[in-house]
Fold each of these.
Amino acid sequence: MKTSSKRSCSPQSPDPSSGADDERAVAGGVPAAVGLVDAHTHVFPPEMILHREAYLERDARFGSLYRSPKAAMVSADDLVGRMDENGVDLCVMVGFPFADLGLCRLVNDHIVEAVGRFPGRLAGLACVAIEAPGAAAELDRCLDAGLRGCGELAPDPHEMHPGKQRGRGGLASIACSLRERGLPLLVHASEPFGHQYPGKGRFTPEACFALAQAHPGLTVIFAHLGGGLFLYEAMPEVRRTLADVFYDTAAVPYLYDPGVYEACLATAGSQKLIFGSDYPLLAPGRYREGLSRLDPDARAAMQSGNARRVFKI
Ligand SMILES: [Zn+2]
């Protein structure tokens, strides 16, 4: 679908094309070990990996996460090369939320190109600098080229100010583009307390809830179990507001005990959890201990069906 950045977009119009019931039936029949989708993997173009030092000073967030040579960076080709041994059928690649839209564009180009070379094995999301002029146009360019959503974005909580959400530009325009196409926004979420680690941000459950509230009908995946937002799905009125919200498992073994998946299933339900490893930070095998405790139907939904439905892949 071709769209224009001048279009009108009402936050009150939910996506009519989720097709959730059909896909749920399919997901229920998928054995857990078959068709694993890893919905949260990070890739960079080879040039950026080779010359990472040159980019450390150009972006404070990138510098804080990738200054250590131990912080692994992989290209799309590196990722594909490890998928079979990791038991993964399909990876959803994300780039990095650079503050410079030009750097986002470099990564987006790499992802678009790789998806074209590995259809059926790779899908990708577009990353944009939320506040940059041209962010919505860059997102539209990538979605027109076949990418399946936007992320992983790391918004500042001030983005959730009600005035900003009503206006044009910024996150409001990004949300508008995605809602029109029925594609998801992946947001980096963090726990409001607990241990500190590189990348721990301030977009905590309150900001996540405000984002969902500001954009009804927009499919949002909060990474890292939404910083714990899933717990509040046990409150009926909160659950209604979070109707289009999903949670991915990226980095969970670093953050929680293995029993957290059962807690998440008890409150949010198996249809809202999406497996993502945060590769190359963690390989999929690191999630085995927690996931093996779940029943096969819940695992099949988490490890394949939900992602295929949400990303339309
Ligand atoms: Zn993240």
Amino acid sequence: MKGIQTTRPLLSVEVFPPKTPEGVTTLLDELEQLKRFPLEYVSVTYGAGGANQDRSLTLTRLILEELDLPVMPHFTCVGSSRVVILEFLRAMESMGITRILALRGDPPQDQTNYQPAADAFRYASDLVTFLRAHSTMQIAVAAYPEKHPQAETLETDMTHLRGKVDAGACKIITQLFYDNSRYLEFVARARRQGITIPIIPGLLPLIQHQQIEKFVKLSQASIPPALMKIIAQTEGNDLAMKTAGMDFARRQIRELLAAGVPGIHFYTLNKSEIALQVLDEFFP
Ligand SMILES: Cc1cc2nc3c(=O)[nH]c(=O)nc-3n(C[C@H](O)[C@H](O)[C@H](O)COP(=O)(O)OP(=O)(O)OC[C@H]3O[C@@H](n4cnc5c(N)ncnc54)[C@H](O)[C@@H]3O)c2cc1C
């Protein structure tokens, strides 16, 4: 499809910092399995409002030092002062990190008394501007093929995405989606808006009935008829849902690669098993 790059696609995988030291050990083992793929980087999520910052930093360091894999830490600016942002940035730079995913984040839901710092940034574009002024890191940003839940329209959301790109982002990673046409239309609209940087599709296979409500609520992703059929036909049969959900993800990736996407960003949920089975045929 016109507007999508056609160079060799890159693969990145996303993980989140586990709560316990045992969880970290397990995750490092899971990631060790994924080393057989040509990973561009592992991306490490960051708790909004700075929650769990230490866990993100520790995990980033361990992936770098113990697995020798490149890392792209996420950073959410909601509620963080400029001083805190600079501290995080310098900590990352001192580890040799060269890329960062700049996000706004959302205020922590469990903190009813949450008070953002007086000089906190309002939008991710402000964070990108700040990072660009203080660092030479490559900056990636998030985008939502089916619109960010708080955006009024697809058009205003795209204008705000353009703001992040103009502020200095060099890569876009999308929210998960299950209907490839939504992603492809999104890329076409972005190109018409003058956005020329790579737009990497974010993929999360739907393999359990229990996940559906959570994932769809989080992403507001539409479920295409073929996936709807899988969900209905596998009701009450977990193994059948898992097998069919992975098949569906493979079909999605096959189609996206055929359309010439510049890469795949895989949401692993800290489990290598699904990633290994789904990605094997594409990244031998
Ligand atoms: C790939 C990916 C990774 C993520 N990783 C994490 C993570 O590690 N930790 C975490 O907590 N969350 C994460 N998120 C979720 C993200 O933090 C939320 O979706 C958050 O609500 C929006 O962040 P953003 O950076 O897209 O915000 P923004 O780009 O600031 O957009 C947020 C909303 O504000 C609107 N907006 C932007 N600029 C303006 C403006 N100038 N005027 C008016 N409206 C404006 C946008 O249209 C949008 O509706 C991730 C999301 C994605 C897609």
